[in-house]
């Protein structure tokens, strides 16, 4: 019974909800008005209302995801399906059918236990696969393929490859197009075949995630969590819609999903999984692929691997310092090898043969330059000649033009693909710091507006990307604010360099039906909650923190409502991935790019929730149990 696991909130949990309410309210203001205030009675009222709603939802979610007490007395069930003397024939029939299906499933060979559910998932995805075939080409992907064919892009000379996007992705996409040319006389044939293969591989990987949860979880709870996870992956249309696209983030997911499971297994086994050479080699290989397929993936992967050596070793293992040190050394080695290959060896190996042109560090200045633009809007006269000169030396858009080009939700109009003079970054950062000390309010407002899409439930109705947006224009449009929902690119986006290649054939009628399907999810009550961006990038992570904040009833207690004791490293991929959202040039989905950045959360969040709900057994826990039994004897 859920009621038996429902408990009143602790003071810390109530405080978490109140903080969430304040952040969501401030983000809603920033996403509609480009300012976090005003902090008036209306702000306080909305904060309390959001906090109360979240508190109720979080408590219900905690009850649903809390494993039942294994020592609690269970209801005796009769053979006829009755419970406590009451007939339940339909329930008994359903349980019997489910048991028969489970028996047949577990009788299958191991490979088919993975393939059969994956085929079922693909069957659920098939309507969208048919609608979107031959697949969606993204703007940036077209540029990458064009460069592979020797067409000038990103201002780089013909025959060179820009490092603005991960070079490995350019190699993969360009090679697929060339393969289509070689085998079918049409580059699009190679791309279309890859997109279909991408869907099949992702279905297999997501099925593997569900099987892992069912395997490591407590009997009963693990199976239920795995089934729930499978239903979400199979029925939520975001997965097939995105996997029917060819873009660096979809390729990244192919490596990221199995890597995520291997991180969890390494944490669950307290690093002992790395003692298997095959596991360790596969883990490093996936780590390298995950690091090389997106720019932020490099940092998420390496930083997560650096956290693994900090995993708490069980008491039984601590008695033998040698094995424990060896386990930590293996974890350190995995991080070191991944970092060296991804950051040094691979870039050096491809730079010469592929004529890779190294980009400057303009992406690191996205947020600071956006703050400078807001400063130019708020305090145009409070800037020295030296500060103005430092800004104009680095950026292509001069300080005097920043106010008119400032878009609170998109940094692209302010900072371009490159810097005017990369050697002036030091002087600019000193000017940036000096200006921020004088007027930190402008910097706070700029940062809040740029990142508001990850936290807000509402957003401006304006989808302006080619010019600045004035604060007065935002205020006039604010009454028409819309829900801040995930926005997918389903139609093709053809870049100018890619347009010089043979025309990319599309399926506009099918793509229109796919848009209508996603629109149905966005407008249908209950279902539309899953399409809110902030649900995945802020609210659900805060629910995990809320659940972790539940105090134990007593030392060693496993009573209902207590938090599940999982190694802290379980959270490392989630934490670093969330932090990787902050340096991006966009968060409010004025265009599909913003949604592309956060789609990893659709896997990481449910996976983490499922692990919490199924209470996975760890070798550390079994060792403690054996030790207690030995001491009792």
TrEMBL record:
Please name the source species: Bifidobacterium callitrichos DSM 23973
Specify the protein name: Uncharacterized protein
Which residues, by range, are in coiled-coil regions? none
Q: What is the lineage of its organism?
A: Bacteria, Bacillati, Actinomycetota, Actinomycetes, Bifidobacteriales
State which residue ranges cross the membrane: 42-60, 114-133, 191-214, 226-247, 279-308, 329-350, 526-546, 567-586, 598-618
Signal sequence, start to end: 1-26
Answer yes or no on keyword Ligase: no
Q: Which UniProt keywords apply?
A: Membrane, Signal, Transmembrane, Transmembrane helix
